[in-house]
Design brief:
The chain has about 100 residues and is mostly helical. It is built from three helices and no strands.
Amino acid sequence: MVENTTLSRRLKAIIVESLNLEGTHPDSIDDQEPLFGDGLGLDSVDALELVVALEKEYGIRIRSDEIDPAAFANVESLSRFVAARRAEAKAAEGVAG
């Protein structure tokens, strides 16, 4: 759970920093707050920028067909998605190495 809390905090910072959300502090984003629409108000361009930032930060690859609205619904679901992708990447490294 500690790793997930740390991941959630970092994801909030990435969202604010990479999307230049001036006036929004990472701590003000609730884990359950919708990232799109009436929540944080992100749009499809923001989604693409967020994917690029996540790939860069965590060394993962996210194909366009893997951008599931449910995975990007809020910080909690995004944390699960990123944690799963990181685990897959580590497993693939173990197989390759």
